[in-house]
């Protein structure tokens, strides 16, 4: 029986490592594109210009916030501050999904599919934590209490909703 529980725990931790690495690396790359222009990205000035066109005001602050929220995915991939960093990624993807919402669901039509999946996966990591195979796990999960993920996700979601409400007012006035 203990071998079965141990096998399940190891499988769960490997699953979280796999999910964390894929989601975290993807978010990090997108954040780095926005902030620095790495990986063929636009960099902060062009990102701010795009944010302005999408109705995010103030545009430069919005660009920096989106970039940092996504770049925190690097922490997710490492399993460091996973619950808070994942919540930040989820909030960025809420906003991104809303931008793509008018195009429907599917990514091939410019829809919200891609940011929605990244956002849901980020939210799941905020709620579950990183698993044992992580920097948080190596530190004994001292910074990863169960309520931290729920609180971080609630705060990040509230922030995203406030930003989208402001965007809606700006675009309606234009």
From TrEMBL:
Lipid bilayer topology: Multi-pass membrane protein
Keyword annotations of the record: Cell membrane, Membrane, Transmembrane, Transmembrane helix
InterPro entries cross-referenced by the UniProt entry: DoxX, DoxX-like_oxidoreductase
Compartment annotation: Cell membrane
Keyword Membrane recorded: yes
TM annotation in the entry: 111-128, 148-165
Cleaved signal peptide residues: none
Pfam families referenced in this protein's UniProt entry, alphabetically: DoxX
Family per record: Belongs to the DoxX family.
Entries under PANTHER family matching the protein: INNER MEMBRANE PROTEIN YPHA-RELATED, OXIDOREDUCTASE CATD-RELATED
Name of the featured protein: DoxX family protein
């Amino acid at each position: 029986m203990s071998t079965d529980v141990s096998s399940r725990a190891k499988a769960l931790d490997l699953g979280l490592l796999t999910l964390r690495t894929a989601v975290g690396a993807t978010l990090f790359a997108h954040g780095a594109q926005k902030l620095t222009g790495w990986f063929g990205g636009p960099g902060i000035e062009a990102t701010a210009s795009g944010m302005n066109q999408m109705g995010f005001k103030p545009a430069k602050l919005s660009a920096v916030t989106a970039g940092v929220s996504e770049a925190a995915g690097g922490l997710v991939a490492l399993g460091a501050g996973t619950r808070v960093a994942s919540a930040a990624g989820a909030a960025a993807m809420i906003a991104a999904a809303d931008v793509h919402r008018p195009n429907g669901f599917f990514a091939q039509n410019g829809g919200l599919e891609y940011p929605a999946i990244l956002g849901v996966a980020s939210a799941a990591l905020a709620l579950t934590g990183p698993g044992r195979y992580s920097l948080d796990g190596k530190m004994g999960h001292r910074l990863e209490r169960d309520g931290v993920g729920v609180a971080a996700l609630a705060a990040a979601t509230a922030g995203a909703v406030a930003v989208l409400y402001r965007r809606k007012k700006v675009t309606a006035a234009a």
